Amino acid sequence: MKTFSVTEAKPQLGSLVDKALRSEPVFIRRGTRLVQIVPAVLPEPIAIRPEGYFTVDEDRAAFINSMPIDDSPLAR
């Protein structure tokens, strides 16, 4: 496993990122600590809901409002 110091990594950061994007391990050390450059995995975007998607009809609102409120310390 080849590691690079921060000083060594700075001038070749672009090529080190390219290596990481090709799934090659890239480690940079600062003193005795190591960091690894890896490709980021972004989550899927949250779907856009149509207007009114989260509205509650009167029957559902009445049901929710009729539920008892639990004031016990464990409910918080």
Q: Give a quick account of the main beta sheet: strands, pairing sense, barrel closure.
A: 3 strands, mixed
Low-confidence stretches: none
Span of the ends, CA to CA:
49 Å
- Give Rg in angstroms: 26 Å
Q: How much beta, percentage-wise?
A: 15-25%
Secondary-structure element order, as H and E?
A: EHHEEH
Q: In terms of structural class, how would the helical and strand content be classed?
A: alpha+beta
Helix tally equals 3
Counting DSSP E segments of at least 2 residues, the number of strands comes to 3
What does this structure look like?
Helices cover about 30% and strands about 15% of the residues. The protein is of the alpha+beta class and about 80 residues long. It has a 3-stranded mixed sheet. The radius of gyration is 26 Å and the shape is elongated. The chain starts with a strand and ends in a 10-residue tail after the last helix.
Keywords:
single chain; 76 residues; alpha+beta
Short characterization:
With 76 residues, the chain is of the alpha+beta class.
Topology:
Layout lengths: L2 E3 H4 L3 H9 L4 E5 L2 E5 L20 H9 L10
Parallel strand pairs: 1-2
Antiparallel strand pairs: 2-3
